[in-house]
Amino acid sequence: MAPPTSSSWLSAGTPTAPPTSSTTGTSVPSECLLLHCNVLARTRLHSRLRRLMEAHAEHEPWFGLEQEYTLLDLNDRPYGWPTNGFPAPQGPYYCGVGAGKVVQRDIVDAHYKACLYSGVKIAGTNAEVMPAQWEFQVGPCVGIESTSKHCRLGFPFANVVPVGDHLWLARFLLHRVAEDFGAKISVHPKPIPGGT
To answer: Where in the chain are the domains?
Structure first.
């Protein structure tokens, strides 16, 4: 299988037709992901992990990851925060439901659907401890879970730990979806100095 090009949409399964931006009607470029599988062997510890996985295969280890993030407006201010100051103390926001407790669920839901469409093993989402802070989970992936000589993104590479690949693709999709909503993404644990 030849590596996907910018005219192919990268997915955790097989390349498909590229989705289009709802704002511009243009295809979503995938060049930013092309490098990922090409550098895994040199920059990641996949070969070491593979040896450990093979040595302990009878235990069938599962892997899952989570990513917390904050949705920011174009002025780098978290959505739902007062213009000057900070929101109410933590408490009602974590796994919250309803106006005044969560903001920008439309972005979160669109990201979840984009991950499902792309074959990303997204397991769930939840609101976190401050307004505009969310989390998503990917996995579980059992062991190395490589089904061929190609990684899950369609590149020729063996012995890939796909949960990391699913996380990378989910992060890309999060930024891409947020762009359509005019929002920014921060994965910094404290995006506002002195904030919660």
So the answer is: 31-186
Rounded CA-CA distance 147/89 in Å is 47
Determine the pLDDT at residue 177.
98
Contact (CB, 8 A) for 174 and 113: no
Collect all residues with Cβ–Cβ distance below 8 Å to 41 and sequence separation of at least 6: 47, 157
pLDDT of residue 158: 40
Contact 72, 175 (CB under 8 A): no
Alpha carbon distances (Å) from 176 to 97, 146, 181: 25, 27, 9
* Residues present in the chain in total: 196
End-to-end CA distance of the chain: 48
Q: In degrees rounded to 5, what are phi and psi of residue 120?
A: -70, 135
Provide the whole-model pTM: 0.69
Q: Each residue of 128-185: pLDDT tens digit?
A: 999 999 999 998 877 655 443 344 444 434 434 477 888 989 999 999 999 999 999 9
d(CA 108, CA 136): 9
Residues 73 and 104: their CA atoms lie apart, in Å, by 11
Number of neighbouring beta carbons within 10 Å of residue 170: 23
Please report, for the chain, how many H helices and E strands are present, in that order: 4, 4
Q: What is the CATH superfamily name and number for domain 31-186?
A: Glutamine synthetase/guanido kinase, catalytic domain (3.30.590.10)
